[in-house]
Amino acid sequence: MPDILIVEDGLHERERLEKLFTTGGFSVRTAESASIAEDLLSVNKFRLCVLDIGLSDKSGSLLFQTIRRQDPKPLVVILTGNPSIYLKQKFLDEGAVSFILKASPESENENLLASIKSFLGSPETVRHSGIELSEFLKSYVQDSSRELFLNDDLKIVACRSCSKNNFEVIFTHKTQLPPLVEGKVVCADCGEIYDPEVG
Fold it and tell me: What is the pTM (predicted TM-score) of this model?
């Protein structure tokens, strides 16, 4: 499960937030519009969404309702330039955990990251606890089985969620008895679990 979805149509602010949360140890996906966010929400279960309500293609209020219908429900932090007291109360009443004004002390890097960590606790994605998928395939998997993880060009397939091909193998915490080993293949960038049976 990825940690955070950032929905922000301003490039500079989106990149700032992505760098801040990634550096803080969280797995992050970004969307520059409501439609892209909806696509990501259809294939991922995020722990928290940071939502700018002033989006270009659809009302942030409508996207907020879409997010609140997810199962399980992600936490939602509204990060906006709109100082309306009415809007703040509306979103908090409807389930947002925080309403933060851009350019306020609460939106500054250190304070914002501390706030996110107070909601999520430790980053969820397990990192550096497995081995790269390419190394695992080369060392432990027969040629006929390697094809499950390769595309037509015999390269590792792209992640269905983030389109990168940086996978690692995380082993279960039990004694491994080759050739039967137990674990899961996880995208090291977004945390999506790869199931070769699904593709």
Answer: 0.63
